[in-house]
Design goal:
mainly alpha
């Protein structure tokens, strides 16, 4: 039967059989339009999810390189990756699946079991030396599952994971690669902010002061005073980089910064206006998707930023990003980058699924 149903039909069925959608969309900007979802994107999503299902391990995990960026390369060792497993799980959730329910319900259930097995007593979600990036995406995955299932086993470990994030925030208001780090960067920080937002949306108590300090850190990552709109500025990697001639301002970091502010309820301000202008001015070339470790990460946050901006900003930018993604899909249904195919495919599927407005974290 699965072969006879297109993705839209799956989503309709899932909407009727679960409470995942939440409140009905309001306003014309919140209605999926043909310019967002095309037969080509539906087919790409089906092939991408099928690829992910084929390569999932029996224990529910996906393998990928566990490592970090070194200059312009990505280095690490291949292992069972709790972060990538969580991102793949989010991709299946975004297509209307729940643990044990939907065309890929079994895959979600096994992914959930693996992630839950990686939650330490102190709340740190890690496996095979994975770090705070993975912890944040795992917390986000657990929050999205808990918000729709209310499973007590998920709730207990989600609370632990949230407390770990709160305890790990440093004096700067941000986070770095490991709990307890005294420095911070915007990339890791935004991941934690989005995880906390998802947990709060699911009904988990989150310390407001933690969010407030994190948003101050994100805002401090934007140049003050802002530059001219004719030469929009991006967010910097670390706040002490503002005056450095080697300061790193990238599309991915700026997309993450704008998305974090939107997620915290900030809808106006020079950081958002300037960040959106930067994203429109400096979109990476589509072939960078294959040759980079951060292009899919950048597009993942950029489409969320554009979606929150709505109106012409969304309508101008999403179809371009969508078509770039579609062009990069391989015959086996996967996407590839310097991190690996399981990561890139999961991210690509999520990006293509955002217009369906299915997961609360991606809603307006």
């Amino acid at each position: 039967m699965r072969k006879t149903l297109n993705l839209t039909t799956w989503l309709v069925i899932a909407t009727l059989t679960t409470s995942m959608m939440g409140p009905s969309p309001r306003g014309s900007d919140d209605v999926t339009t043909p310019s967002e979802v095309t037969p080509g994107s539906e087919g790409a999503i089906r092939r991408g999810l099928a690829f992910l299902a084929r390569v999932q391990r029996p224990d529910g995990s996906w393998t990928e390189r566990i490592g970090r960026k070194v200059n312009n390369t990505y280095r690490g060792h291949t292992g069972k990756h709790v972060g990538i497993t969580s991102i793949a799980g989010i991709a299946f959730l975004a297509a209307g699946n729940l643990p044990g329910r939907g065309p890929y319900g079994e895959n979600v259930e096994r992914a959930l079991s693996f992630v839950l097995s990686c939650v330490n007593v102190n709340g740190f979600i890690t496996n095979d030396e994975s770090r705070m990036y993975s912890h944040a995406f795992a917390t986000l995955f657990l929050a999205e599952v808990y918000g729709t299932t209310r499973r007590t086993d998920v709730q207990e470990k989600l609370k632990r994971a949230v407390r770990l994030i709160e305890r790990s925030q440093n004096h700067l208001g941000g986070w770095r690669y490991l709990p307890g780090s005294q420095d911070a960067d915007i990339s890791v920080t935004v991941c934690q902010v989005q995880a906390l937002r998802a947990a709060r949306n699911a009904g988990i108590l989150v310390d407001k002061s933690v969010i407030d300090k994190a948003i101050r850190y994100v805002k401090n990552s934007y140049p003050q005073p802002p530059r001219s709109r004719r030469r929009p500025a991006g967010f910097v990697y670390q706040i002490d980089d503002h005056d450095s001639p080697k300061s790193r301002r990238t599309y991915a970091l700026t997309a993450a910064g704008v998305t974090a502010l939107y997620g915290a309820g900030e809808y106006h301000g020079p950081e958002i206006d300037g960040g959106l202008a930067y994203l429109e001015a400096y979109r990476p070339h589509k072939f960078k998707l294959r040759q980079s470790f951060d292009a899919y990460y950048g597009y993942y946050y950029a489409v969320q930023a554009f979606f929150q901006a709505g109106g012409g900003t969304w309508k101008r930018n999403y179809p371009v990003i969508r078509d770039d993604i579609l062009e990069m899909q391989r015959k086996d249904g996967s996407w590839r980058d310097m991190v690996g195919p399981h990561y890139a495919t999961s991210m690509a599927c999520i990006i293509l699924l955002i217009p369906y407005r299915y997961l609360p974290i991606f809603d307006r």
